[in-house]
Amino acid sequence: MQMPGIDGLGLQKYLAEHRTFIPIIILTGHADVATSRTAFRSGAIDFLQKPCERQQLLASVAEALSADGTFRQEYAQGARINSLLATLSHRERQILELIVARKSIKQIASQLHTSPHTVRNQRASILKKMQAESDACLVSMVLFARAEVNPWK
Question: What is the pTM of this model?
Answer without folding.
Answer: 0.70
